[in-house]
Amino acid sequence: PPPPPSAPPPPSRPPLSAATRRRFGPLRLRVPAENRRQAFVLRGARVLSNARGSAPGQLFLERGRALALLPGPFSEMAPMFLEAVLPALRKRFASRLRVRRALFRFGGISESAADERLRPVLRASRGVEFTLLAGPGLVELHASASAATARGAQEALELVRARVERRMRGHLCRHGETLESALGEALLQRGWRLAAAESCTGGLLSKRLTDVPGASRWFLGSAVAYGNALKRSLLGVSGRTLARFGAVSAACAREMARGARERFGADAALSITGIAGPTGGTKAKPVGTAFIGLSLPGRTTAFRRVSPGTREGIRERTVSAALWRLYRELTRIPGN
Amino acid sequence: PPPPPSAPPPPSRPPLSAATRRRFGPLRLRVPAENRRQAFVLRGARVLSNARGSAPGQLFLERGRALALLPGPFSEMAPMFLEAVLPALRKRFASRLRVRRALFRFGGISESAADERLRPVLRASRGVEFTLLAGPGLVELHASASAATARGAQEALELVRARVERRMRGHLCRHGETLESALGEALLQRGWRLAAAESCTGGLLSKRLTDVPGASRWFLGSAVAYGNALKRSLLGVSGRTLARFGAVSAACAREMARGARERFGADAALSITGIAGPTGGTKAKPVGTAFIGLSLPGRTTAFRRVSPGTREGIRERTVSAALWRLYRELTRIPGN
To answer: What is the pTM of this model?
Structure first.
């Protein structure tokens, strides 16, 4: 094995890293001493800029060994690893095997259920490595085929692609990196504007839609009608519906979606009303029950969705179900 | 040292853990095989129930050693560690020192700035251990004083308390566990209902308010007016204000807050309008600029807040600033 890298030299003390200056400079904020201290780097390090925080990463590549120093919180460390360290390692330690990669995204299915359904494909595909990851809204399958030639790797990957697409029919997401951005792209393709109306998710549906930069091109806004008074005044839900079926009902979800679409001047609207818990459940409508409404030109529907988990998990899963339902309606890809 | 624990026995296979049955049972969902597999436990293990997922934790305590098996995602592992493993370790490995603990929460200040401001207190307090943690909205300081007697530990802690409270004046949060629940308690104490109006935060303000179970007792709802048309129709922002000052202005924030308070029948209202990025910034209003409006009976104000970071970080910090401002207005604790 090669000798270990030489001991890192003592810290150098630049007055302040360029990244930290950029971060605080234009905002004319005072830079706390703690953030100045975070900007110190070791001599000889390649500085990895940290777009998400003030402490930069540092990378040493020497005599066949790599040493990376990445700062604290996962949300800052992980992007630096993926964007800077991993490419540097790949470049430095490239193997002679040819590798081809593919990424599949699935909506409307849990990680466990996707795992179970994909198992035969994963077993049948020798020489291909798989990683299944659950994000909010979509499950991702990363496939990596290795062979002596690029063509061999590509062929192995195409076989996997055909098998995965057959097996996961009805769950394939073919736009965007997230469910939210996929939905945004599908709306943009139609030139449609979306509106929303939410009760138990309390703004999470709108928050997730507006996580996408530029969402204003396809999202108009939302009424977070947490109490029944706002369901009536903002969305036009009828008192009769609330009295007869309650706020957690398909009828209420339909009126919320139709109200948002018509009153906000949208082409499509999503609504959610349900019981996020921890209290408020009944035998007929246990905690986790939600009705998701969908209003399109000439057609307004609603369906019931029951999600397990905590208040937080129920709200996230209910929003994902609503987004996926609209995405499928908008795309109607053959076989999807 | 004591001998290592004996090798764990082979897995036992109960048909399904009680926790998993509880999780899926009432919802009448099919339990995927993957979740059944997750329910397997080793013989002799103390099963740690997992309220947030389907895979239980397992704990072995034997001859002075502890072995804990905790399932995958951090959101499931961490609560199991805190709620079951840590208390068991404390009980089993208790020291003879007496320990007294205190927890302080600070709002309206970053972790780095709190660290800098607290440093003299932390340095001056021998025999007391400190941990500073940043959550969304509040920074937490955990203090743990150890002494030979309970009274000694208590006295050391009281000294710390006096120093911390003097040093952090203006940033002490004295309600709730989170900023959102603190605000909810302060509203409940006054018997007030809150409404909201948001633009660049796109629902995050409402989402965070409704993260608190029972938020319907003090939160009516919100208008997520992402486009200008909804700012006018839902909140009554004047076309003249939008034309003269733009949507990202103190005047617009004030009209949004006043509109939400008056139209939704609330006692108080918060509004946010700004530029979350990554694009849309100007020299006068760089990315991260937001105007936060606050409408109380007889008084409507707005202030400018500039936050560093990504789109996500800017949105979270802007919401925290808005919540903290209202909390301080409502509490007006002497010296805070």
So the answer is: 0.79
Name the residue among A215, A313, A299, A293 with its Cα closest to residue A248: A293
Provide the ipTM: 0.78
> Among residues B30, B176, B71, B15, which one has the least CA distance to residue A116?
B30
Taking the C-alpha atoms of residue B311 and residue B309, their distance in angstroms, rounded to an integer, is 7
B299-306/B289-296 β-pairing: antiparallel
Nearest CA in chain A to B309: A52
pLDDT digits (tens, 9 = 90+) for B258-309: 999 999 999 999 999 999 999 999 999 999 999 999 999 999 999 999 999 9
Residue range A205-216, pLDDT digits in tens: 999 999 999 999
B46-94 tens-digit pLDDT: 888 887 777 889 999 888 788 999 987 888 888 899 889 988 888 887 7
Quick check: B213 and A309 CB within 8 A?
no
- B40 vs B219, residue with greater confidence: B219
**Is-contact A256 B222, C-beta < 8 A?**
no
Q: Which residues of B25-57 are buried (b: 16+ CB within 10 A; e: fewer)?
A: eeeeeebbebbbebbebeeebebbebebbbbbb
For A97, the 3-state DSSP assignment is coil
**With contacts defined as CB-CB under 8 Å, which chain B residues touch A225?**
221
Helix (H) or strand (E) holding B180: helix B179-190
Structure tokens belonging to residue A251? 């009828």
Tokens of A135: 């994000």
Domains contained in chain B, CATH given: 16-93 (3.40.980.10), 98-167 (3.30.70.2860), 192-332 (3.90.950.20)
How far is it, in rounded angstroms, from Cα A44 to Cα A231? 62
Do A188 and B183 touch, CB atoms closer than 8 A?
no
User: CB-CB: which of B112, B205, B213 is closest to A32?
Assistant: B112
Q: Do A308 and B27 touch (CB under 8 A)?
A: yes
Q: Are A210 and A178 in contact (CB under 8 A)?
A: no
Query: Which letter does DSSP use for residue B75 in this model?
Result: H
The CB density around residue B187, as the number of other CB atoms within 10 Å, is 23
- Tens of pLDDT, residue by residue over B104-125, are 999 999 999 999 999 999 888 8
- CA A320-A325-A329 angle, 5° bins: 150
Residue (of B225, B187, B211) closest to B136 by Cα position: B211
